[in-house]
UniProtKB/TrEMBL annotation:
Keywords from the UniProt entry: Oxidoreductase
Pathway(s) it belongs to: Pyrimidine metabolism; UMP biosynthesis via de novo pathway
UniProt GO MF annotations: dihydroorotate dehydrogenase activity
Cofactor: FMN
Biological process annotations from GO: 'de novo' pyrimidine nucleobase biosynthetic process; 'de novo' UMP biosynthetic process
Protein name: Dihydroorotate dehydrogenase
Length: 554
C-alpha cells in the first residue's frame, strides 16, 4: 500500500498517522455498526490492530430507545436498509461508560455526536471532550425527523455547529450525506474549520416492502453497503476536488478492490460496516487481518469471509394452535417445520406490529414458547387459528457436543433446551419454574431424556425451590461431562458458579436473554460484558465470553 501524502497524514513502515498521532491501521468501523456497545468497542480496540480509528455510535444529549424492531432488512446482496433511530444511552451515561475502559494508545477514538442544534451539539461535546481524540458530527442520518440530515441540510447551521465544536480544541470530522449537495456541505464544513470529512452516510430515506408491507417499523430507512458504492466513490471524488483534508471513506467497501478504488478517489482511511454482517468476533479479526495483507500483496483472501445471504428473507406461516398455559405464557404452534440447530433462534414478525427474537421450542412443527412481556408479545398472544405470521432465520450457532450433558433451564429458558434433548440422546434435564403451569412439554422431555428433574418455587411439582438449589445434587447423580444453561442472568450466573466446582469450565455453555435487534451482528445490542455479540458468537457461550472473571466465583 502506498504511503499517504494528504495533509497531516503520513505512514511509517509499521504505523499510520492522523493529526500527529500514530495509529495501528487504516480502517474503522462506521458509527452505529458493531462497536455500539462499550464492551465491544474495547475488545475490538485491543484485539484488532488493523482498526486504527475507533468510531463510536452517535451520542446525543438524552437517552433514546430508538425505533421498534424491525430496524434492519437485507436490501440486496451485501446491502441493507436500516432505521435504528439514533438509539443511544445519552451523553451522561456514555461518559460514565467510556471513562472506565482502557484503549490502546495507538488508536484514534472518534466520538460520533448528534443534536438538533448548535447548543445540543456543544453540550454533548463538552461532556466528552476529555475522553476522546476527536469528534465526528452526525449531520447526515437520513431517517430522523429532528436530527441528522434535517440539521445538515442547512449549511449556515452546519457551519455554526462545526465552529462551535472545533473551538473545544479537538479534531473534528463532519459526516456528510450523499442525499444533499456534497460540495456545498463540505464547503460549509470547511468554513467552520473542520479537520476532516467522513463520506458517506446512508442513502435515503427509502421504503422497503415485503409481501406489500413496509418491513421497518419506521417505514423509511437508509441504504448501506454495496448498493451505495458508486455513490460513495463519486462523493469522495467531489470532496477531493475541493480540499486536501483527510477523508474517511464509507459505503460499499468489502474487499481490496473497493479500498483501492476509494484510495484512488482520494480517501485516506476506510470504514467497513455492512460487509461485517454475519461475522462472529473471530471472523472479524481474521477479515481485517486478511484485508490488510490483500492490500499489500494484491491478493483477495478477505472475500472468503464475506456472507452474501444471511437468512433475512421472511417465510410466511399460518397459526395452527395458540395454547394458553398461564396468564403470561402461551404456546404458538405453526403449520410448517423449520430447519434449525439447537441453540439457534429466529425472529417472528407481524407487519405493522413489530418483531422480536425467540428460541425455537420445537422444529416439527415450528413451535414457540412465548412469555407476555410487552406490546408485541401481547399481539402474538391474540393470534387465532389460520392467522399468519412471518419468520426469519435461523441465527446463531450450535455448540458442538459429543458427550453426556446436563441441560439446566429456568423460566422461558426451557424453550431453548428441547432441541438439545431431541438431538443428543444421553441427556439429563433439570428444569425450574415458578409453578407447574410454567413447565411445558414435560411429556416430550420424559420420552427423550434419561433423567428429568423438576423444581417449582411454590412446590406444586418436583422440588420446592429453584433449579440451582438442587443443582449440586443433580451433578453428582448424573456425572455429566458438560452443562448447558439457559434462563435469567442471575440463575445462569449461579449455575455457572456451581458447575465450575465440578466440571471443566470449557465444557459449560450458557445462554441468557441479551437484547437482540438484528440477529446478524451489526447493531451490537446483544453485547456481553466481555465484548462478544450473542447473536453471532452464541447464543450459547462459554463463561469467559459472557462474564468478566470478577463476576464469577470460579
Amino acid at each position: 500500500m502506498e504511503e499517504y501524502t494528504s495533509r497531516d497524514i503520513s505512514r511509517s513502515r509499521s504505523k499510520y498517522k492522523i493529526f500527529n498521532k500514530k495509529i495501528s491501521g487504516p480502517f474503522t468501523i462506521p458509527s452505529g455498526i458493531v462497536t455500539t456497545g462499550i464492551s465491544i468497542l474495547e475488545k475490538i480496540a485491543n484485539e484488532i490492530p488493523e482498526i486504527g480509528i475507533l468510531t463510536t455510535k452517535s451520542i446525543g444529549p438524552e437517552p433514546r430507545k430508538g425505533n421498534r424492531e424491525p430496524i434492519i432488512a437485507q436490501y440486496s446482496p451485501f446491502s441493507f436498509i436500516n432505521a435504528v433511530g439514533l438509539c443511544n444511552p445519552g451523553v451522561e451515561e456514555f461518559r460514565k461508560r467510556i471513562s472506565k475502559i482502557k484503549i490502546s494508545p495507538d488508536k484514534f477514538l472518534l466520538t460520533s455526536i448528534f443534536g438538533s442544534d448548535e447548543k445540543e451539539f456543544k453540550e454533548v461535546a463538552e461532556k466528552l471532550v476529555e475522553f476522546t481524540d476527536g469528534f465526528e458530527l452526525n449531520i447526515s442520518c437520513p431517517h430522523s425527523e429532528k436530527y441528522g440530515q434535517v440539521v445538515g441540510q442547512d449549511n449556515a447551521i452546519l457551519e455554526k455547529i462545526t465552529k462551535s465544536i472545533v473551538s473545544l480544541g479537538k479534531p473534528v470530522f463532519v459526516k456528510i450525506s450523499p442525499n444533499l449537495d456534497v460540495k456545498e456541505t463540505v464547503k460549509a464544513a470547511i468554513s467552520g474549520g473542520t479537520s476532516g470529512i467522513t463520506a458517506v452516510n446512508t442513502k435515503g430515506p427509502e421504503l422497503y416492502l415485503w409481501d406489500g408491507y413496509p418491513v421497518l417499523s419506521n417505514k423509511l430507512g437508509g441504504i448501506s453497503g454495496k448498493a451505495i458504492l458508486e455513490l460513495g466513490l463519486t462523493s469522495v471524488k467531489k470532496i477531493r476536488e475541493i480540499t486536501d483534508l483527510p477523508i474517511i471513506a464509507c459505503g460499499g467497501i468489502s474487499t481490496r478492490v473497493e479500498v483501492e478504488r476509494y484510495k484512488e478517489a482520494g480517501a485516506n482511511f476506510f470504514g467497513i460496516g455492512s460487509a461485517l454482517a454475519g461475522m462472529n468476533t473471530e471472523e472479524i479479526k481474521q477479515y481485517f487481518h486478511d484485508l490488510l495483507i490483500d492490500l499489500k500483496k494484491g491478493t483477495d483472501n478477505a472475500s472468503s469471509l464475506l456472507k452474501e445471504k444471511l437468512n433475512m428473507d421472511y417465510q410466511k406461516y399460518t397459526v395452527r394452535e395458540n395454547k394458553s398455559l398461564a396468564d403470561d405464557l402461551f404456546l404458538l404452534r405453526l403449520d410448517g417445520e423449520i430447519k434449525i440447530e439447537p441453540g439457534q433462534f429466529i425472529f417472528a414478525w407481524l407487519p405493522e406490529k413489530g418483531e422480536k427474537p425467540f428460541s425455537v421450542l420445537d422444529d416439527v412443527p415450528l413451535t414457540l414458547l412465548i412469555q407476555k412481556r410487552g406490546y408485541f408479545t401481547n399481539e402474538l398472544s391474540k393470534l387465532k387459528e389460520n392467522d399468519f405470521i412471518y419468520i426469519r432465520g435461523p441465527y446463531g450457532n450450535s455448540p458442538k457436543l459429543n458427550e453426556a450433558i446436563l441441560l439446566v433451564g429456568g423460566g422461558t429458558g426451557i424453550a431453548a433446551l428441547y432441541l438439545f434433548a431431541k438431538k443428543y440422546k444421553k441427556t439429563a434435564v433439570l428444569l425450574g419454574a415458578k409453578d407447574k403451569n410454567h413447565l411445558p412439554y414435560l411429556e416430550k422431555f420424559k420420552v427423550l431424556c434419561e433423567e428429568l428433574y423438576l423444581t417449582t418455587e411454590n412446590g406444586e411439582m418436583g422440588h420446592k425451590g429453584r433449579a440451582t438449589d438442587i443443582l449440586p445434587e443433580i451433578i453428582k447423580k448424573t456425572n455429566p461431562e458438560g452443562c448447558l444453561n439457559c434462563g435469567p442472568e442471575a440463575m445462569v450466573k449461579m449455575a455457572i458458579d456451581i458447575e465450575s466446582q465440578y466440571l471443566n469450565p470449557e465444557k459449560i455453555y450458557s445462554s441468557i436473554e441479551f437484547l437482540t435487534k438484528c440477529g446478524i451482528g451489526l447493531c451490537g445490542s446483544c453485547a456481553t460484558s466481555n465484548g462478544y455479540r450473542s447473536c453471532v458468537d452464541g447464543t450459547f457461550l462459554k463463561n469467559n465470553q459472557i462474564f468478566h472473571k470478577s463476576q464469577l466465583r470460579f
